[in-house]
Specification:
By secondary structure, the chain is α/β, with parallel strands linked by helices. The protein has 10 helices and 10 strands. The chain binds S-adenosylmethionine.
């Protein structure tokens, strides 16, 4: 396991993923009944943008910094900015801390909801555990995220939001992860599953969509945002989210923000954005 998210925290793909995460949280909060958030590949919870790793890659400059510099963001983006402000009590100029998916999801939980986080990396797990040490609504496990899909599903609440956000270090992990999500759905068929995937070249993504459609017989909403042309197989040109069992009107909430995000994040108007049902 070589992947360290601290090099990538706050990049364009994180921004896209985390804003849609908030849209799903908003949709789930429309009903009073509790839900469980499961984050299978949680990372460390939040990231110091002044750390050596973040400063070395500076990926956040073309991600969250572009968003923070933009006037009049849409309401959903403003919720995201407010969450970032909450983790930076000393102010956001300069921006120091960037929240990861566990922190953002936790920020939007209500008193009746809870979160389960799993992280396998030996160095990252203790940091994540420490981040939520005093939080009774959050359980943190040093565990394989795919095992977590078996261990923690279905949740006792029978309402759940599952984020699957692997580093894709293993060959063919994109195809494998679709099968794992299909198996998890068999355990918990009404869960809202959100799978993040990298976009390098288009043809590979088209194949992935076909295989998802074959394996999963539930509604799948696809949201994608690319900031470069999708034709360099070695480069992260964009990213996508496959959302199984999307909550009512999630597509509308995403469609309202996607053109704005693309305009702010794209490099010289390259790349594309799309929302569709598979
Ligand atoms: C893309 S990062 C997660 C970022 C995080 N979800 C966020 O949005 O802030 C992927 C994480 O998965 C961890 N990881 C890798 N393989 C794993 C596995 N099999 N089970 C659980 N975690 C794993 C890595 O250490 C890394 O922290």
């Amino acid at each position: 396991m070589n992947y360290r998210h601290s090099y990538h925290a706050g990049n364009f793909a994180d921004v896209f993923k985390h804003i849609i995460l908030i849209a799903v949280s908003n949709a789930l909060a429309r009903k009073e009944s509790p839900y469980c958030y499961l984050d299978t590949h949680a990372g460390i919870g939040y990231y110091d943008l002044l750390s050596n790793s973040a400063q070395k890659s500076k990926e956040y400059v073309n991600g969250i910094l572009k968003i923070m510099n933009e006037p009049n963001p849409p309401k959903l983006v403003q919720q995201y900015i407010d969450c970032i402000k909450a983790i930076n009590p000393d102010g956001i100029d300069p921006l120091r801390y960037y929240p990861g998916s566990p922190y953002i999801a936790r920020h939007f939980l209500r008193a009746q909801d809870r979160a389960v986080l799993t992280e396998l990396h030996d160095d990252d797990y203790p940091i994540l555990k420490d981040t939520f040490h005093h939080d009774k609504q959050v359980a943190v496990h040093h565990q394989d995220g795919y095992q977590a899909l078996k261990a923690f599903l279905p949740p006792k609440e029978r309402r759940g939001f599952i984020l699957i956000d692997p580093p894709y270090e293993v060959q063919d992990e994109l195809m494998q992860v679709g099968s794992k999500m299909a198996t998890a759905l068999a355990r918990f068929e009404t869960g809202v599953f959100m799978l993040w995937y990298p976009i390098k070249e288009r043809r590979a993504i088209d194949r992935f969509h076909h295989s998802l459609k074959d394996k999963i017989k539930r509604p799948i909403l696809i949201a994608e945002l690319s900031v470069h042309p999708e034709n360099v197989p070695t480069h992260l040109n964009g990213s996508g989210l496959a959302i199984v069992n999307p909550p009512w009107q999630l597509d509308k909430a995403i469609a309202e923000v996607l053109p704005w995000l693309w305009r702010v994040l794209s490099e010289n108007k390259q790349g594309r954005h799309e929302i569709k049902t598979l």
